[in-house]
Design brief:
The protein is mainly alpha-helical. 71% of the residues lie in helices and 10% in strands. Helix 3 runs antiparallel to helix 4, helix 9 (184-240) packs parallel to helix 18 and helix 11 (263-282) crosses helix 12.
Length: 457
């Protein structure tokens, strides 16, 4: 998130200032001007928080260098002067590359925080320890800024949400909520578990789908290269001497000619579908449709579906405190699953039924159409006995055990399938090569006369 500071003038000439955050410069400016129009203000100045490199000296000590984020060069100079430094130089950083930290770094931060909170260590001390030990530059700087803002009395939820570009929207929300909930340790432990499970599932899904897809793509490209460029160099020698070709060699040579004559078309067939798919997936409607039909993919769809329910249950268990306060945990849990279809059905079907018609939680979830019969049956029992919170945790643990076991089997099955395809392709290439080796002219004299005739012609 990018931070902005703006100065505006009221109708009576009074100047006021404020700050806000946005994902981009254009979005930030739109927010500021929208706010100004709503409150009848005239925007005088907009400043974006940037990084500044400084070099300072205190007395006769050795000069030191550092980096500080601020809205202007003047702001940095004034802050350093107040600390007793003599400013030698302050320059705006020309290029800022703040890459999102790896998920493992975020998980480590949350897990260690949970463990130290369990030991009753003050949160400010925890942040100080982690700032000193964190290696990732982006995460280190983010934690430092969060620590500074919390020390100034800033709202923890607002502070963490400013850095959702670093932590992710759900993680930032949970960490911000933790300080205000009175159950900080439990929320940090649940968030760490959520991040670990999400990371583990993505890794398993990558092993089951993405890695095999890349392997097949590389194999297909290698076969195309062999057929289009390597094989013709040998096979066309036989055509030159008018030697009859065996069936497989003849077919492969025709394929080679087709690929050579339609190179642009073949390249477009490789490039356009993935790009088109990516653009559709990024759109709101396309993402919704993709999220819906992702759950119907044979074998994999069921695992994805159950993992979404597991994540939903874990978040719901962490936040749920009673039937009178169940709507907000349901909404947050729906957002946490990361599936647009799943989220939309809960927000637009289940929650309205509960709020407007007073429908029970089990009946409302059944109407959404995104929960399994097993989930609904167990939830109904929990609703009748007043143990919904514990039931949610039981369902989450059950689906975790099931999906971990089935994903492992799926990965092994896919690996065997890929190995078989590679073996079949290698056998076919070997057969074509072997068939080529058996080709020979009808007689040496005929081959020589044919060559002389073609040379004279």
């Amino acid at each position: 998130m990018i931070e902005f500071k703006f100065t505006a003038e009221k109708l009576n000439g009074q100047l006021i200032s404020g700050t806000l955050s946005a994902k981009s410069v254009s979005e930030g400016k739109r927010k500021i001007y929208r706010l100004a129009d709503k409150n009848q203000l005239k925007v005088k100045n907009i400043e974006k928080k940037s990084s500044y490199l400084y070099r300072v000296r205190r007395g006769k000590e050795k000069a030191i260098s550092g980096e500080q984020k601020a809205y202007s060069k003047k702001e940095v100079e004034e802050a350093l002067t107040r600390l007793g430094f003599r400013v030698l130089s302050v320059n705006k950083k020309l290029f800022e590359f703040n890459f999102k930290p790896p998920t493992t770094e975020i998980v480590t931060f949350v897990k260690i925080s949970a463990e130290l909170l369990e030991q009753k260590l003050p949160y400010s001390e925890i942040l100080t320890l982690l700032i000193n030990d964190t290696q990732n530059k982006t995460l280190k700087e983010t934690l430092r800024e969060i620590n500074n803002e919390l020390k100034k009395g800033a709202d923890s939820e607002v502070t963490f949400l400013k850095y959702q570009g670093v932590f992710g929207k759900f993680t930032a929300y949970m960490l911000g909520l933790a300080a205000k909930s009175g159950n900080m340790t439990e929320i940090y432990k649940a968030t760490a578990k959520f991040l670990e499970r999400t990371q583990e599932f993505k890794k398993s899904l990558r092993s089951a789908l993405i890695t095999p897809a890349i392997t097949l793509l590389v194999l297909f490209a290698a076969v195309l290269f062999y057929v289009a460029y390597i094989f013709p160099e040998t096979a066309k020698l036989f055509v030159k001497f008018d030697i009859p070709l065996p069936p497989m060699t003849k077919f492969t040579l025709k394929m080679s000619d087709f690929l050579s004559d339609n190179t642009i078309l073949v390249c477009l067939l490789f490039i356009i579908p993935p790009v088109l798919f990516w653009q559709i997936a990024r759109s709101k409607k396309g993402g919704y449709i993709l999220s819906k039909y992702m759950l119907k993919i044979p074998m994999v769809g069921s695992l994805i579906h159950k993992t979404l329910i597991e994540v939903f249950c874990r978040v719901f268990y962490t936040l749920y405190s009673g039937s009178a306060e169940s709507i907000e945990p349901i909404r947050i849990a729906a957002e946490a699953v990361g599936n647009k279809y799943f989220e939309e059905r809960i927000k637009n079907v289940a929650i309205p039924l509960m709020v407007k018609k007073g429908t029970g939680i089990t009946e409302a979830f059944a109407a959404s159409g995104v929960f399994t019969e097993t989930f609904l049956s167990r939830l109904h029992s929990g609703e009748e006995t007043g143990t919904i919170k514990n039931t949610a945790l039981q369902i989450a643990n059950y689906y975790e055990s099931e999906t971990v076991y089935k994903l492992k089997n799926l990965v092994e099955m896919v690996q065997v399938f890929i190995a078989m395809i590679i073996m079949i392709v290698m056998i076919l290439l070997t057969l074509v090569s072997s068939e080529t080796a058996t080709i020979h002219p009808k007689s040496p004299g005929m081959a020589a006369s044919t060559y002389i005739e073609r040379t004279i012609a």
